[in-house]
Fold these 4 entries.
Entry 1:
Amino acid sequence: MMTRRRNSAFPKVVIERDADSEESSSYDGEGEDGPEPETSEEEEEEEEEVPESENGDKKEETLMDAKKKSKAPITISLKKVCKVCKRPGHEAGFKGATYIDCPMKPCFLCKMPGHTTVTCPHRVASEHGVVPAPHRNTQNPVEYVFERQLIPRIRQCKPAYVFPDQVSCAVIRYHSRRVTCLEFHPRNNNLLLSGDKKGQLGVWDFDKVSEKVVYETIHSCILNNMRFNPTNDGMIYSSSSDGTISYTDLETGISSSLMNLNPDGWQGPSSWRMLYGMDVNAERGLVLVADNVGFLYLVDTRSNNETELAVLIHKKGSKVVGLHCNPIQPDLLLSCGNDHFARLWDMRKLEAGGSLYDLAHKRVVNSAYFSPISGTKILTTAQDNRLRIWDSIYGDLDFPSREIVHSHDFNRHLTPFRAEWDPKDSSETLAVIGRYISENFNGTALHPIDFIDTGTGQLVAEVMDPNITTISPVNKLHPRDDVLASGSSRSLFIWRPKEKSDFVEKKEERKILLCGKAERKKPRKNVGDESEDDSDCGGFSSKGKRSKGSRKEVICKSKQKVKR
């Protein structure tokens, strides 16, 4: 049998460089093709050591020729390649805290050509171009009743805004995956509920900080929405991408399934159903939930059973990501979805194609909400970096009253940004939403949380913390206190207003609770649905002692002197 030594030769490596880049010193004095491979002598020795046989000469020569041909040079390119359009010659994308535009694309913020993101007029002044759309006064009987009976109850003068602009406490790495939704308890002012991508439900008392619990068996994947039972605030409804509605006792963590769209388990992506938008209609005693193919389901809260057949309320095959019942007229339902529409419905006449109004958008609509007090305004968030406001549901809904350009269009796996009303604002003009494009604050790239006046389009406040470097897409304002809760990656933060006075010095304590163990990102060949922010530490740096094990917790108290 013929024996042969293993070939250890490596293919030639060719490095491509830009014309203006410096050449490597190791290639000085050599030709364009580079130095000869060092293994050429070994290849010659191999050819001498291979014994010849009378019958196998031609076959062996053919194998050697094929191997030589297969050793194509490996090309390592060091040329500048744009991350946006994938073309060489220029660079684009985020560099630290600055976003560099691709010259082949329009502005990343307003989606219009002719300028860069840095010089975009909407970034310089958020109210740029905000002009109320033509609003036709219909003078119909419904609008007349609204003008005479409801408007006098609402303050005409705007109250002074109070902004929670300082982190008072936080729990780091609270969830095992990114936070997807937040809800304050309707009666207990210090209780915050949170859901995550893994389907877990967290209950945190942020006044006592260390009192927290995570229920891990509520759902098997993303928990998309939560709503409290109007008659029993110790129970909560939740919808998930596993196709189920759960009814959970917050004291014990015991949950029961009210509806399961996938009783036979995974049968392939074509038959799998996921539940997204959800709301509770207290007057009718119904839980409303919508799925990923455009259907609406109704569940009776008294019998905990599905009441009627599903109704197609959006384009078939598109996700319905948001549902909201009007706080004054519960028969009015607002829905939004991936078919680029927000739709207004009369629940007494729910049928396919029977919407009262279709509010058109240019891209996917992430959320749509009625105003919290009068229920006459509509606020939507769309992926075209626009917030749209309709000032009256009784007037002309063909066009929004105004559009506000805001950065919330993302190109990675994040929880969608949703602008939400301030439930305490009697003028119904203040909204809160996280920002996607980072800003350079003293050399650090931070993603602020924005407070926007929807009446003028003005950015009235932006809050940030130098220790929070991750994006905060999930934000919730407290219905009674001046408190803001934000979910950033796997962590939760509670913001309160700073005390402003110049007379007394007081030491403030900021309690930070570290949970679990920081995980290092591992390179993956197939990204799948794993998000970039799932494995980080929440972006909060602390001088406190870090936990060694996943079950240990450390409370770090950072004291600051504040002049009062």
Entry 2:
Amino acid sequence: MSLRSLPRYRRAAASAASASKLAFSSPRIALPRFARCYATPVTVNGFTQLKPTLYGQPLAPSHPHLVGPEETTPGIPQEEYDRRRRELMERLPDGSLVVCIAGQIKYMSGRDYKFRQSSDFWYLTGFEEPDAAVIIQKQPSCARGYRMVMFSAGTDSAKEKWDGARSSPDDIVRYFGADEAEPISAFPSVLKGLAASASHIYLDIPNTSKRARAMSPKSLLKYLSPSGGLSRGEYDSLVDSLSSSKRKPLAPEVGRLRAVKSKVEQKVMRQAADISARAHNKTMRFTDPGVSEHAVAAHFEYLCAREGSQRPAYVPVVASGPNALIIHYTSNNQLIANGEMVLIDAGCEYNGYASDITRTFPANGSFTPEQATLYNALLTVQKHLITLCTEATGMSILQIHRESCTLLRKELERIGFSFPLGAGTLDTLYPHLIGHPVGIDLHESSHMERDAPLKAGMVVTIEPGVYVPPFPEFPKAFHNIGIRIEDEVLVGKEHPVVLSVNAPKEIADIEGSCQGLLGLTPF
């Protein structure tokens, strides 16, 4: 069964190219001719917005201050999403079918949490609503090499009064490059028809947690539509077809594409890193002895949100003094003492991409001689490791980690540490890996081999750390000091680019930020 033969719901584009031209050919706002025409154009700072929006997410007609005229999501044009889908399908065998499912809404007490789309689904579509799915069929005879049908909840005027607009089928074809737009209730029957003739079916759905068991085809259909509009026999037949040898995991295929960032992705990631870097800078100025760690964390998140960040990329670490000996200290509930160092591991998510930066600085704005000595030892190591993040070196994350252990041991021995037990003692001081890939997810390493050479366009963190417990075998002057210095690095052919370069890490710059000598204010 071809996607071309599916019954069309509302309308379908003759081609993705014509749909794109239809959407973006005119800067004027043309209100769709259906029930939600009560949206009012409101002009602010030269931008004409639609209030309330007609769409399920920011799009150029409703949010021109966020989304450009040829963009599907902020910073990412429709042609970029098309390129991703084309490259994916070119890698797969003829007759392949890709099935990708949107994320699930998660609920707190009485209301739902702010929704975040499934990363792979967002990477392929840019669609940010729940209750959605996409089927992509490899068709070399088509201009794009594939045909795509998207499924969504569609519009519901009663629900929209409470929760806001959802994108209509017209919207989906026009702005997301779909060939067909269908209601989510049609998903099981459409999938059944296409699965029968497919040679391979690439399929994954979001797990509710890392510990959750992999979901079966049966749970997939239940997740999307408990009844599915199928008879019991048809339902069982579809489950059997998805359980056969045709079924292949989709995540590794998408993961290989996500590992290397395009130019537009690199630009968005630099913007995310800049927002986080400025927040680190101003948070250094904000922090004082006597302030609570949670106030510092809240200040960082506020600064990021004020610059347009949609959410934190992860729960921030604000660890003062001995709390920094805990790698993922997220309690953030103690008071910062005078003379302590403060380790902040925090970054924002901006327009779909995470940032990940760690800085360590003195709470009172001035390093003690002992703090400066240990800090400079670690900084020397970190700066050298960054130079290795090129395709030309042929090094992997694991090889760079081994180099970090060698260099850190030498630097620590130089300032008075000894390692009579060999690597085991260093593991006490430096128990984690040197870094990880970062992108749409904070850790984009699930389907990347750590021993594979880095390639130009990858973005990785370089984050050596040293955490000195009060053990007699370590110099007493450094007891209870934990330091980590983490940057985001764009791997280049010959030279790396530090995306987080605007977060201060030289001692003079850190003290200048803390003391207000650089003209910065806490806000």
Entry 3:
Amino acid sequence: MAVNFSPVEIFGSFAPLGAYASASSMAVPLISAVVNCTGRSICSSSPRSFKLCSTVVKPGLLCCSVDGEAGERVEEDDGYLIDGSAGASLKNAQVTGVDPQIPERDYTGTPYVPIFVMLPLGTISMKCELVDPENLKNQLRILKSINVDGVMVDCWWGIVEAHAPQQYNWHGYKELFRIVRDHKLKLQVVMSFHECGGNVGDDVHIPLPEWVMEVGSENPDIFFTDKEERRNHECLTWGIDKERVLRGRTALEVYFDYMRSFRVEFDEFFEDGFISEIEVGLGPCGELRYPSYPANHGWMYPGIGEFQCYDKYLMKSLKKAAEARGHSVWGRGPDDTGSYNSKPHETGFFRDGGEYDGYYGRFFLKWYSGVLIDHADQVLTLANLAFEGTHISAKLSGIHWWYKTASHAAELTAGFYNPANRDGYAPIASILKKHETALNFTCVELRTLDQHEDFPEALADPEGLVWQVLNAAWDVGIPVASENALPCYDREGYNKVLENAKPLIDPDGRHLSAFTYLRLTPELMEEHNFTEFEGFVLRMHALGATTLSS
């Protein structure tokens, strides 16, 4: 089988985005596939349908798949990949063995699911200035033209309160919000109390505030710590939520003061309903979890990660819990848990029949996950005080690797007490319900079959995890939103999102309350990718079906 390409203009009708359409971008050398923290290339081969993307597995092998045999070799002229339009990637492609049309489910009459798009991480500079406003305006106009409902932006603690406690600089965000409002788009705002950089997709580095790092240099126990006493600077340990170690304030007071300042500063945007939701950051990457799989500590997919409870504050809490239980010897971290890149069966704690399900193991895991739930409880209480009358949400990460094992080791180290014999997400859903907080869950675009093909040893099951978490939230009656975990430009990924967004056989007609697309990039704005995205928006908005023609 061969696919022939002809050179095309990079962005076609989107050429006004001049910052992205340049002669040098017409052809780029073939590069290796980008692999993210879940171990998948951005576009993976699949036996279900034909797709093309600009990710290349190795020289001469284009990331594509065809009905029947997956991953067949596709030759590209001169060893270069042309980032072209839909016309170049489909109309000019000569493909054999592909059905003329792949029918899509008709979404006419289904619930309307709003679509938001995350703005680039570097939209606001470290000086709190808006970067390239004219280009942003062009992009917002294009998003509005296909009826995207709004955008999401991170309000970085490390930018706004960078230099001194309670000295906030919101200047760049004010300019940004006015531009977004002028384009008649809604806004979701993330209270980002974490570091940016070091995780997949992070193309900028935004550390925690300077003054916080100065406190940390004197007292490194304000950061999460693993058993080797390596500190993680992504966010503050939950052990100091009620400890006055941040220049006279507790961590909870610091978070509340920041949120209250934001609410006062942007009152006009709340009053007119422009800000539709506040997502409250609760941990690394803004997610409610421990930083158990940090790439900067050597973690690689599908490692089980490590427990992050060895700072002096959390260890004090653990010892207190053990004494209250009547077993002071349990006031320690577990033994034989392996390292970041271990597999469950290689450890005494996580293996089948391991200590995780023994008396001590159950005590430790209940305490460890309880700290996570208590942190969410405390912060969301304050968020509702600061943002009374505004929709609040919290993000949960989709840790799907080792889901098909008994212990669910990667979930346990992240704080989700969800082994095969226990539902670890129902308690989290209950605490969100207590605060009338929506759940934002990731990885709804991932297919279990893809995971099995790429990393069969990981025993991953993203579809099973999504089903469990979404139903835990729906069962307690809270709204469920979602976002893609990885860059997604292809029909299969969008179809998987749609399946989860609007379950076909759900007798109660439950559906996602919103979907946020990760994220606004030059790749999304390429004509073929954007055409696919537009079709996805139409179907999420209940405007029927489309077909993929050869």
Entry 4:
Amino acid sequence: MSILVPLVLYITAPISCAQQDQTNSSRRVIDVKGGPESVVWVVQLSDLHFSVHHPDRALDFRNLIGPALSMINPSLVLITGDLTDGKSKDLLTMKQNEDEWVEYKNVLDDVVKMSGLNKSIFYDLRGNHDNFGVPLVGGSFDFYSKYSINGQLGRNGRVNSVTLQIGERKHLFVGLDSTMSVGLRGPTNLFGHPTEQLLTEIDAELSQWNFESYKSISKISFGHFPLSFSASSQSGKSLKDVFLKQSLSAYLCGHLHTRFGKNLKRHHRLSHHFLSFQKFFQFNIHQIPSESHQNCSFGAPVIKEFWEWEMGDWRKSRAMRILAIDRGHVSFVDIDFKSGAKKTIILPTFPLDSRFMSTSSSNHDYECEYMLPTSYETVRVLVFSVSPIVSVVARIFDSRPGHFDIVMEAPMSKHEDSASRGDLYTVPWNYKAFEDPSADRFWLQIEATDIMGRTTLTELRPFSVNGLGARIAWTWKEFFVMGCQWAALYYPILWSLLFVPLLLLLIPKALLLFSRKQYTFKNFIAEKDFINAIVWLLQELCRVPMLWFGFFGYLFHLILFPWLVGKVYTESEDRGYMTYVGWVVKSSRGWEKHDYIGSPDIIVIVLPHLLFVVLPALLVTAALIAEKGAYRHHFLSCSAKKEDDYDSQNEGSIRCDYKSSKRSKFHFRERWIWKVLLVLCLAICWRHFKNCIALMKAYEMNPLHFPGYSLGIPLLLFYAIYNTQRA
């Protein structure tokens, strides 16, 4: 009897879990009908930014995406945030605009009708622009809940999952909304903020089919924010931790747009030799594994890795992505609609592009012969076209000779099904002939010709049947937005930018008071030492108490007092105040106070102010004071020498001093150095006032709402100019 009880519990556990999944409103299972049975495909769109000031975005979306979806016939359409723009024409005021949401709803309704797809397969997520100035989810200014497809269909949770089931295979898609619970106006609404509760829900959704470990399950997650722009929870847990734990295949996101580059992709891998700097930076697209050999023994730890693929934007790039899962192999193609509609789209599903495949697990499965051999026996490609296709040809090139030589060229056959969702073309090949230690020796290209005679070629893409990864590098802009973990970097950079000015003020002051060594212009001229020059400059600042105490007090003002006092919601008379820690605001109910929200989003105000205003102003002010001292020293020395010119014993020095005076005329008599420093002061003030005007419009302020922040640096610079204009 004691044996039967655990046995009954074991048998009934999967049944109860399955029943729970069916009744959970955030979960959905779709039985994909029709062939080909080995592959499913979905469409991703992101960052639509429908705007009343740019009607072409919505117009192009209606005219191009509706017919494209009809041609592609995806099983899901994922729209990963920033559905509307929420910006004024000058881009400075960022709050909700209901007209943009009405337009979004109308355009999406038209697209659904034109595509012939079921509205329920559309999943549109909230982005930070859709959250600008929204004090309460479900409140009067939460237009997302009213006009989005998710909102209309009652998908009100922050996590929604849908499983595409075809035969014995399951493909799980989990969408997440990590926007702020209290939506601030921009620009301090930039990061994803996953909470402990949200991470727990995501973990539960991704694990809902884990009890069916004997079946093939692919897991895809989609959200708006890249992981580089996602904060950690209060316990330090992150989305990356959950994704690695659940063996995710890929995380699809948007947010960054293609202006930063087209390789906004990042490979994540669980490493047991985790270096401290890796929580701040990842220098390469691929996270290189520390293990060089494959452990094929039974019970060896499973390799934990996943890809993060940012897709670009509709706003300017008119980008769309098709993602396919073919027997567990995940591939994608990005389409550019800037040149108009596409008549034919080709997506190779196997072999995979070796630049963007899960290389560690793929190589492990191949070397240990864990892969399904039948999934390697054919080259496969999906072809979507408005006209019937008459021929599809696969070409493989060998790049070893230094140029591309065709080593295989074969016509592909259409996979016939009684009820087809799309056209899959295949051709058998000897995949073992293409094993190679180089991940980018062999390259694949597909050519399709339709009945109208139009030919479409895919770009050449490298592949590796043995699962090796081809290395590609980020540009500096791509590394800046994808390789830097900005939420983790905020406080180290902040305190560095605060301590450096404080040290520049305190160390020279201490040397001036307690050191016998004097750092003067005369010593600098004699020794020509860089350290002496810096200390001399800063000690000259110490000799002007008004400026020294002014900068010292300003830095403490930034640490101890609010920077700004402004309106953070779409429509509200209540104001919040911002410090370097975040915003303190009242909730829409009026009685609940939210302490320090919007961190690290305030990075866009705090760090530029310290780096491009405060620190340069301090150095330029010190240079102004030092220039005045140097000019006075030069003037007095010249005056003293001219008195000696009448001494007949110093006739040789007369000519020397006269020539020296002529050489220094450009630098000292005309004071060109002071004039250059004056221009730098004006440039710093111009940048600062430009930032102030932007903040005044963003949060409906005037200078009296932030006098310390707005007036402190200009007043110190103007005093320095006044103090040094006459030597």
